[in-house]
Amino acid sequence: MSLFEKELNDLLLEAVGDTAEGENGLTISEISEKLGISLPSVTAAINKLVKKGYVEKTRSQVDGRVVHVTLTKIGHKANTAHRYFHLSMVRAITRGL
Predict the structure, then answer these.
(1) Cα–Cα distances in Å, from 43 out to 29, 37, 89, 90?
(2) Edge to edge, what strands does the sheet with 67-71 contain?
(3) 34 half-sphere exposure, CB direction, 13 A CA radius
(4) Segment 43-64, tens digit of pLDDT
C-alpha cells in the first residue's frame, strides 16, 4: 500500500467516523464533498475498506440508489487508534513550547 492510499484510508475512516452514533452514516457523495476528493476515488477506496472489514455499505431504504457508509467495530477501533496516535504526536511536538 502506498503512502497516499494509507493517508486516504485514514481520511476516509475519520470522515465516516465523524457521524454520530445511531446515524445512517455518510453517503459516498457526502464523503467526496467533505474531503474534496472525486467520487470515483472515494468509491474505489471505500470498496477496499469494505473488503478489509473497516466499513460497511448499506442501501438507503428511502432511495435504493443511495449508499450509506458506516464504520464496523474494527473500523471504530482503527479510527480510535488513529486519532490517539495523532493526539499523542501533537502533544509530543508541542511539549515544552
Answers:
(1) 9, 10, 30, 31
(2) 26-27, 67-71, 55-59
(3) 17
(4) 999 999 999 999 999 998 889 8
First vs last C-alpha separation in the chain: 35
Task: Count H helices and E strands in the chain, helices first.
Answer: 4, 3
Tens-place pLDDT, residues 26-38: 999 999 998 899 9
The pLDDT of residue 92: 86
Would you say 75 and 9 are in contact if contact means Cβ atoms under 8 Å apart?
no
User: Which residue has cell 464496523?
Assistant: 72
Q: How far apart are CA 44 and CA 86, in angstroms?
A: 25
What whole-number distance in Å separates Cα of residue 79 and Cα of residue 65? 27
For the entire predicted model, the pTM comes to 0.75
Of 3, 4, 85, 5, nearest in space to 52 by CA: 5
Q: What is the DSSP letter of 21?
A: T
